[in-house]
Amino acid sequence: MKRKNRDMELTVTNSNSRRAFWIYLVAIIVSLIGLGDSIYLTAEHLAGRTIRCTVIRGCSEVLGSSYAKIAGIPTASFGILAYFTVFSLATLALFGYRGAWKSLSLLVAAMFLATLWFVYLQAFVLHAFCQFCLLSAGTTTILLLLVLVKRYLVKDLAH
C-alpha cells in the first residue's frame, strides 16, 4: 500500500513539474514579446521618429504625450528593464532557482498596476490608444495570469 501511495505522489509531482515547466516557458516567450515591443518603442522615441498605428489610431497622441516620459526617460525604457528582468527570472525558475518565481510574481504584480494606470490614462485622459502600448498591456496581463495559475493551480514541490 505504501508503494502505491508513493507512486501516486511521484506521478502528481511529475505532472506538476511538467505544468510548471510549461508555465515558465510561456512566461519566457511572453516576456520576450514585451521586451521586443519596449525596445522598438524606446528606439523610435530616442531616434525622434513618429510611430504610426496600423490597427488603431492614437499612437502619436499617446507616444507624444507628457506621459511618454518619466523624468526625461522614455516610459518604454522602463518596460525594457521590467521585461528583461521577467525573462531572466523565468529562465532561472525554469532551471530550478527557488526564489526566482516569487521575485517574478512581485515584479509582475507591480507591472500590472502600472499597466492599469497607463490604460486608464489612454482611455480617460488622452482619449487615444496606442496599439504598441496595448500589446504591452496584453503581455503583462498574460504574465499575471501565468503567475496566478502557477500559484493556485500548480503546486510544484521543486520550486
Sequence-ordered SSE layout with sheet pairings:
Layout: H1 2-47, H2 59-63, E1 69-70, E2 73-74, H3 75-94, H4 100-126, H5 131-153
Antiparallel strand pairs: 1-2
Helix pairs in contact: 1-3, 1-5, 3-4, 4-5
Indicate how many domains the architecture comprises. 1
Distance between the termini: 28 Å
Radius of gyration: 19 Å
CATH topology: de novo design (two linked rop proteins)
Which structural category fits the helices and strands?
mainly alpha
List the total number of helices: 5
Strand order of the largest sheet: 1-2
The stretches of 5 or more residues where confidence is low (pLDDT under 50) are 6-12
Number of strands: 2
The coarse silhouette is elongated
Oligomer kind: single chain
What CATH first level would be assigned? Mainly Alpha
State which percent range the strand residues make up.
Answer: under 5%
Task: Examine the secondary-structure arrangement and name the CATH architecture.
Answer: Up-down Bundle
Mean pLDDT: 89
One letter per element, helices H and strands E, the order comes to HHEEHHH
**Helical residue percent?**
over 70%
What's the story with the biggest beta sheet?
2 strands, antiparallel
The name of the CATH superfamily reads VKOR domain
Any overview of this molecule?
- With 159 residues, the protein is mainly α.
- It has a single domain, classed as de novo design (two linked rop proteins) (Up-down Bundle).
- 76% of the residues lie in helices and 3% in strands.
- It has five helices and two strands; from the N terminus they run H-H-E-E-H-H-H.
- The protein has helices at residues 2-47, 59-63, 75-94, 100-126, 131-153, and strands spanning 69-70, 73-74.
- A two-stranded antiparallel ribbon has the order 1-2.
- The longest helix is centred in the N-terminal third of the chain and has 46 residues, at 2-47.
- It is elongated.
- Residues 6-12 have low confidence and may be disordered.
